[in-house]
Amino acid sequence: MGKVIVMDHPLIKHKLTYVRDINTGAKEFRELVKEVAMLMAYEVTRELPLEEIEIETPLTRAKSEVISGKKLGIVPILRAGLGMVEGMLNLLPTVKVGHIGLYRDPETLQPVEYYCKLPTDLQERDLIVLDPMLATGGSAKAAITFLKERGATNIKLMCLIAAPEGVKVVHDEHPDVDIYLGGLDEKLNDHGYILPGLGDAGDRLFGTK
C-alpha cells in the first residue's frame, strides 16, 4: 500500500496557516503556495538515488555525491496545480513539466480530460503529480490513471492539504502511489469542500470567483 506522508516541518505549518487565512490576498497566496511547494519538494525527493563522483575543491581532489541522473517529471493538474510548479522548479530547474487538464461532467460527475501534454519519455521518468487540494480525490485519481495508461509506472502525488476521503479514493484505485501532504484535514462538507480547508485554490491563486 502506498504511504501517506504528512509534513510536520514548522515552516510548512506556519506558511499553510496563512494560505488558509481568508484575509490573505491573491498575490501573497500565490507566493505562499510556491514557497510551501518548494519546502515540500525536499521531502518528496528524499529517496532520489545518488552516485559518487570525483571533483576538485580549491584544496584537493575529493569524492562526493550527486543525484544519479534519474529522470524526473512534474505534472500539475490544471489549473490550481500551476501554482505549485514554480516552487518545484526552484529546486529542480531541469525537470520536465507535463500538464493535465480535467473538468467534471455535470451529468455523470466524472472527471473528463480536456488537455494533456506530457514528456515523450514518460515511461522512463519518476513523476510527481501536483494539486493543491485532495478533496473528493476524483481528479487526482483520474490524472494518475491517465498517466498510467500512457506508460508511467512510478508516480507520487503531492498536495498542500487533503481530506481523508480523498486519500482513500486515490489509494483504493492506486495503492502503489505515495501521497505527500502539507496537512491532512478533518473531512469534506456536504458540497465536497475540505474542512477547515482553504477555499477554492484556483480562485484564490488567480483572483476569480
TrEMBL record:
- Which residue windows are coiled coil? none
Q: Does the keyword Translocase apply?
A: no
Which superkingdom does the taxonomy of this entry point to?
A: Bacteria
- What's a single GO CC term here? cytoplasm
Q: Which SUPFAM superfamilies match?
A: PRTase-like (SSF53271)
Q: What are the record keywords, sorted?
A: Allosteric enzyme, Glycosyltransferase, GTP-binding, Magnesium, Nucleotide-binding, Transferase
A Pfam family assignment: UPRTase
Under Enzyme Commission nomenclature, its number is 2.4.2.9
Q: Which cofactor does it need?
A: Mg(2+)
Q: Which pathway does this chain act in?
A: Pyrimidine metabolism; UMP biosynthesis via salvage pathway; UMP from uracil: step 1/1
Tell me one GO biological process term.
Answer: uracil salvage
Spell out the molecular function terms from Gene Ontology: GTP binding; magnesium ion binding; uracil phosphoribosyltransferase activity
Catalysed reactions, as listed in the record: UMP + diphosphate = 5-phospho-alpha-D-ribose 1-diphosphate + uracil
Top-level enzyme category: transferase
What controls how active this protein is? Answer: Allosterically activated by GTP.
Record-listed 5-phospho-alpha-D-ribose 1-diphosphate binding positions: R79, R104, D131, P132, M133, L134, A135, T136, G137, G138, S139, D200
Domain Phosphoribosyltransferase: where? 6-208
Record-linked PANTHER family: ADENINE PHOSPHORIBOSYLTRANSFERASE, URACIL PHOSPHORIBOSYLTRANSFERASE, CHLOROPLASTIC
Q: What does the similarity note say?
A: Belongs to the UPRTase family.
Protein role: Catalyzes the conversion of uracil and 5-phospho-alpha-D-ribose 1-diphosphate (PRPP) to UMP and diphosphate.
Q: What's the protein here called? A: Uracil phosphoribosyltransferase
Q: Which organism is it from?
A: Gottschalkia purinilytica (Clostridium purinilyticum)
Task: Supply the gene name.
Answer: upp
